[in-house]
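Fill-in record for L,D-transpeptidase.
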Amino acid sequence: MKKLAVIAMLLGLSFAVQAGSIQHLKKRKAVVYTDRAELCLENNRCYPVLIGKTTPKGTFDLNIVKTTQRGYGGDVMKFKDDGDFMFAIHRVWTLKPEERRMERIASSRVKDRVMTNGCINVTDDLYNKLKAYFVLEVV
């Protein structure tokens, strides 16, 4: 009988730890600093991003949305709807080569990285890392 009680207690602790881990994951936050055109993750590692003058500030839930539109790689991370416009984090959009987005995201000059219609463009590598984040704060 004592063994069953110990097993039940250990199972209960295991579920509590798992639930706590899930809650922690759901609170993982990425922060975009518009004055630096950078996105920083929990580990304080920051990456250059492309932003726009209309990128909304605030705290938002991140939701992965499938898309068939060319240039987005099959999905985007929506963070705000504004009428018929969706603000999202997505891979660098390169369908207009004259915009030089890949060159601009690599630039050390912030003014080069402020050029989108409000979405946040990130490299493929950063986009994949962001899939483990659920909250976006834009300041």
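KEY FINDING: Residues 2-26 form the longest helix (25 residues).
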